[in-house]
Structure formats: C-alpha cells, structure tokens
Amino acid sequence: MNILLNFLKARDRSEALNASPSPPRTPLEGRNPTALEWPGARWWREREGQLPHHAITARGRGEARRAGVCLFLVACGCLGLVEIIFRKPLPELHPIPATTPEVAYVAGATLSVLALAGIARVRGARLALAIYWSFAVVLTFIAALKEPSNPLSWVPMSKAALFAIAALVAAGAIRGRRLQISLGAVLIFYGVIHLVFHDLIAELIPRWFPKGAIWSYFTGPLMLVAGAALVADRAASEMALAVAALFSSWILIIHLGRLAAHSGSSFEWTFALSALALVGVALMAVSPDPPGEPPD
C-alpha cells in the first residue's frame, strides 16, 4: 500500500512540474547565431576555413576549366594559321630570323597540328604543345636579353611561359594551382607595366571609349590585386574568373576595332589571339583541382 501511495505522489509532482509555465523566451533565442554577426564576420570565417565557400561550385570550376582548355587550344591553332597565312613567324612570340617562308610554314603547321590534336585528345599532343611553347620561352628569353632593362622586353617571354604552363595543366601533368600562381605572378607584372607605361596603354584604347586616358590607372591596380589574390590563394577561383572577364572585355573594346582597321597585320592578329588564349588560361585557372581528378 505504501508503495502505491509513493508512486501516486511522484506522478502528481511530475505532472505539476510539466504544467508549470516555462520562462519567457528572449528575443534572440532560437535564432541562427551567424545571423547576428557583424557584416564582415561571415567573409572572415570563410577566409579562415571555418565555413565552406560556395561562390563557385565544384561543377562550375570543372566546366570553366574545360571551356578554358578548349578556348586556349583553339587560340593556339589560330596562331599557327597566322604564321602560315602571313608566311612569317609570330611577332614577338617567335623572334627567329625567317629568311624563307618555309620556316614560318613549319612553325605554324606544327602549332596548328598540335592544337588540333590536343582538341581531339590525341595522346601526348598537349604535352608536345607544352614543349613547343617551352621552346618559344627560350627564344623570347634570348630576345629579351638584347634590352634587359626594358620591362616590355619581357612581356613576350611571360606569355610564352604562361602558355607552356597552361599546356602542362591541359595535359594533366601539373595541378591547376600552379597555373593560378603563374597567372598571378604574370598579372602582377602586367599591372606594374600598366601603371609605369600608362601613356602607351592609353594609346591602345579607342577614342570612342570614355575616359580612355585613365584606363590604365584602373586596370593596373585591378591586375595587381587579382594577381596577389591568385598567388596567396585568397578567392583565387573568383579572381581568375574576373580576370577572364577582363581579358574578354579587351577583345571586345580594343582588339576587334584594331583588327577591322588593320586586318592585314600579322601583329594585330597575334595580339588579339594572344588575348583570346589568355582568356582560356584564366578560365583554366578557375579550378585548382588535380587534372586527373575532375571536380565534377
């Protein structure tokens, strides 16, 4: 009997506690803690790796890399056609004495065939393309030694070196992270050139473009910031995509008009197609993932 009474008393106490009103909730109780952070807190937490960054998805990075590889190879093939059509080596990129058109034919045909084979995924074609551009690095380096104190002398070599690294990434020989670092270093170099030689850059801007004289004061710092972010791996994928958009705008604003005015100039065609190849390189740099492990 005592056991039954004790059980009933314990049940009554339990029901009384459950029926007691709960304390009032504070206005902030139950809300997402991250919603209460200061505006820059989420960016800082993403920067420190505490939160995943989803600005560009893994599938998006993979698609950008594939598009960049295709665009880069197409630009390389077109550069080879320029050598064949104009019967002389590419200005600046192939500084070799061409006393006969056969030299340009061989160089242009080799570049076009390697690029076409790379698009068709022929085994070893993209690696051979990297060797081709490595040979161009040697030629442009020798040419730059004629005037080593002039920063503009090293621009062709920087392009050839970047194209060689991009071909290695396309071949799957190295990771895309190395391309990000290389692109970042080249962008820092180009940013300095835009600031130092701002008058020369201003001459490239068409007259119809507003405020063309101060264009280099915008593109120079922009490339410096983007280059530093790529080297430091801070929002590198986003910066590479922004650089691809910047290079694309140059094609629309600068190169198309110059090609229309000087369609018979091999320099203008090389200038424009090099910019197209740089767009492809920047898109390839969106993905730092290992080439053998596509992110999608």
Q: How are the secondary structure elements laid out?
A:
Blueprint: H1 2-19, H2 41-47, H3 58-86, H4 101-119, H5 125-144, H6 155-171, H7 176-196, H8 198-204, H9 215-232, H10 236-261, H11 266-284
Helix pairs in contact: 3-4, 3-11, 4-5, 5-6, 6-7, 6-11, 7-8, 7-9, 9-10, 10-11
Q: Which structural class matches the secondary elements?
A: mainly alpha
- Report the principal-axis shape: globular
Helix content: 55-70%
Our count of helices gives 11
Total strands: 0
Beginning-to-end CA distance, first to last residue: 71 Å
Average pLDDT works out at: 82
Order of helices and strands: HHHHHHHHHHH
Q: What is the count of distinct domains?
A: 1
Beta percentage is under 5%
List low-pLDDT spans. 25-40, 47-54, 292-296
The biggest beta sheet reads: none
Describe this structure in words.
The chain has 296 residues and is mainly alpha-helical. It has one domain. Helix content is 68%, strand content 0%. The chain has eleven helices and no strands. The longest helix is centred in the first third of the chain and has 29 residues. It is globular. The C terminus is likely disordered.
What are the salient characteristics of this protein?
11 helices; single chain; 296 residues; disordered C terminus
Question: How do you describe this structure in short?
Answer:
The protein is mainly α and 296 residues long. The chain has helices at 2-19, 41-47, 58-86, 101-119, 125-144, 155-171, 176-196, 198-204, 215-232, 236-261, 266-284. The longest helix has 29 residues, at 58-86.
